[in-house]
């Protein structure tokens, strides 16, 4: 059953109407539905396209396990090394964990996920294989894009680049990267490998860049140079990009202009404790921006609930967005922005678009963000996949 | 009925036990309860003392009204002037609005509230009278402390100081103040009036200080000087105190030491978009720290749900608290810290303490913070006031 009539719903908060879904796609007003198509009374709830989780780590969540007592050290490398060890000591199962988290996302109205998945010389492709299996199991419930992610570094751990190559052959969709200076200590070599893998496999790039200030700006320049040299405009994303939060706003503005020119995208998680890209500045410059939860309940930290409406709120709080038009920007980042970065075909609410959508409770989109009530309904390809805040498929 | 047996509950996450409440207070283990005392199976939930909302504005919430479309200008004074006007245009009723917000707090497990309440020459004491009426109506459900708050300035609006004096005579518990430089343009006169009112009425002080960097540090020095000169150590609080987030960490550390020495307290809302006091630095220096939601769903901004567990999460996110012992600090600020600042008698879970408490769902306190599930039970003076996330008394 992928034909459906959503009665009495308000697309993006507009006036109430009836929305028909035919064969998994939104239909033009007045399109007749097949005999016996389900009719759902939406009771005036807002209809929005599915939320887009554009940056998370499905393979490493500890959801469903006993509480993990976090006593990890403060440095980035402490967290990376602790995680590799804990995966073994807890016997963490990437397939099970990724299915748990993905279904939590579904319950919150997310219809598309981009997940970075660890590739390293200790765990090989176990993460990639596990998340790929979850992707297959959840086909028709949520779309999952896999980024091969060298979490432990490539240059500092020989053999990783070969594993990245194998991961991309095995079905990873995007080439990941990580702090070319801060972690890998050799920015030229790191980025040359990332972009060579992208060229070899014909796949886009999404690089974690936590490096601050001038250091991060330097790495970002190297990314921009390679993007233009290889004609990869529109295919490269920088996640986090904390350097854009640098105190030197003129330098940040120049870098932002360069991103717009090369059509390099930004994905933010809007953390409150560090400098971050200013989403209004990115929007003004025309830089495509998406958002994600980052790790959810993992060895890095206990936070996260996979709710991209909560992420919109956190983007709003971080960027001091108070006006309704400003909250609309936060919502756009958590929907259309991520979808455009992932180049999702047929994303939206127009006739012909794929019926991947969520009902939101609230008088306005802004109210939906600040109240974050359980989602009454989530549909994927016209099929109901969650109701009243719960995914229909039980988690493993 | 203020005697009660809480069966199978885990005080602060410790091993499960039974906790008796006799005549509104926690009783020693084994104390016999009166015939017919209610027994509640807590199913292993964590028992904590009631959450403490130490900084909010009960009189100005728009809860329960149609969505307020925020199109307000960016400056502080834009928001202040817009609010005075909107109170009239919406016919905002301080009693009704404060009761709505206070009952929302109760539903989340808050048992004590410190509310700043506007006093100005346009609205006079209407806010104070409205919140005082709510305080009387909700006696036995939640305790409300009223701060007379010159939101629109005192020196720049003649007549306000006299109204502040009248508010304190009429039942306000605390003398408020606001940006002696930034808003009132005359820091000496502003603070001299605040402290003179405190001396006259024998009441403590709680001053909003949004001023940044060196300006805020200057105002804070003036507050410290008056605190010591008047022997008011332990009776003065600075809310927000953004200047403690200044880039010059040595200057912030010196100021923090001075706060500790004068026993001046800090209340934070941990906003993500501006510099804030670092809670670990305050704790290390011995500065008593509480927390609050600030305005909830008002003309200043749409955020807030009165959940002090969410505030603990936001404190954690803002201060990069990831370890369990760090989340314990965030929880402490949202409970014991605010209680100590408000000098609440008998606050805690020890025998003899007032039975103001909340059940939390989670394996640990940290899990309770990150999941923020509806509170199974809230008790005030041993009386059940909320169950399963809903206050028993209906909101107006």
From TrEMBL, chains A, B:
Q: Which UniProt keywords apply?
A: Hydrolase, Plasmid
Task: Tell me which Pfam families the record gives.
Answer: Amidohydro_3
Q: Which InterPro entries match?
A: Amidohydro_3, Metal-dep_hydrolase_composite, Metal_Hydrolase, Metallo-hydrolase_Enzymes
Locate the Amidohydrolase domain: which residues?
143-386
Q: Which GO terms describe its molecular function?
A: hydrolase activity, acting on carbon-nitrogen (but not peptide) bonds, in cyclic amidines
UniProt-listed CDD domains: Bact_CD
Q: Does the keyword Hydrolase apply?
A: yes
Residues annotated as signal peptide: none
Instruction: Quote the protein name from its UniProt record.
Output: Amidohydrolase family protein
Task: Give the species.
Answer: Paroceanicella profunda
